[in-house]
Specification:
This protein has one domain: CGI121/TPRKB (PF0523-like), CATH 3.30.2380.10. It is 47% helix and 20% strand. It has a 4-stranded antiparallel beta sheet with strand order 1-2-4-3. Helix 2 runs parallel beside helix 8, helix 3 packs across helix 4 and helix 3 crosses helix 8.
């Protein structure tokens, strides 16, 4: 399934929703609270989409977090925080929020939601109705430069990787090594 502006996908036995948007946020905490209030049975995380190296990166991190939850070895007590930490490649919540958390002002926002299919559809319907959704996961040259610099990824590390999305593979591996 391709990701355009919103998608609900099945990962193993779980369902996840990805939705992207560009918007001005006046109060980051209030924005996230409002998204989470749509349906309290859904775990929701909102991040700066510029730190997501494409759909493969996000889906691989979600698979890691879901597997960690299943095995009782998450990096935090809540699945949405585990996803945040893994996407930021850190085990410290404050650093993760500094690195990839939303900021007041204009943001490319990626909403990640985990829950039952019916509950995710409620969240998706609300987002489609109230926001102008768009694809924020495209891996542009500017985004690549930001991620290479932020994560201090060198040419040797890139050349050693054999996957198509080398950047996503490296970031997923780094997230997998957190503990």
């Amino acid at each position: 399934m391709s990701f355009n502006d919103t998608a609900i996908l099945k990962l193993g036995k779980e369902h996840v929703m990805l939705a992207g948007m560009k918007l001005r946020i006046r109060d980051t905490e209030e924005f996230i609270r409002s998204i989470r209030a749509i349906n309290n049975r859904v775990a929701v995380q909102a991040i700066d989409a510029n730190f997501a190296a494409g759909k493969e990166h996000v889906l691989s991190i979600l698979q890691q977090s879901l597997q960690a939850k299943k095995n009782g070895i998450m990096l935090s007590k809540r699945i949405e925080t585990d996803v945040l930490l893994r996407l930021a490649c850190t085990n410290q919540i404050s650093k993760a929020l500094d690195y990839i958390g939303l900021k007041d002002g204009i943001n490319d926002v990626l909403i990640i939601a985990i829950g039952k299919l019916a509950d995710l559809k409620v969240v998706q319907k609300y987002l489609v109705k109230n926001y102008r959704l768009r694809n924020v996961l495209k891996l542009s040259a500017k985004k690549k430069r930001l991620l290479f610099s932020h994560h201090k990824i060198g040419r040797d590390e890139i050349s050693a990787c054999i996957d198509d999305n080398k950047l996503a593979s490296i970031l997923v591996e780094r997230a997998n090594l957190l503990w």
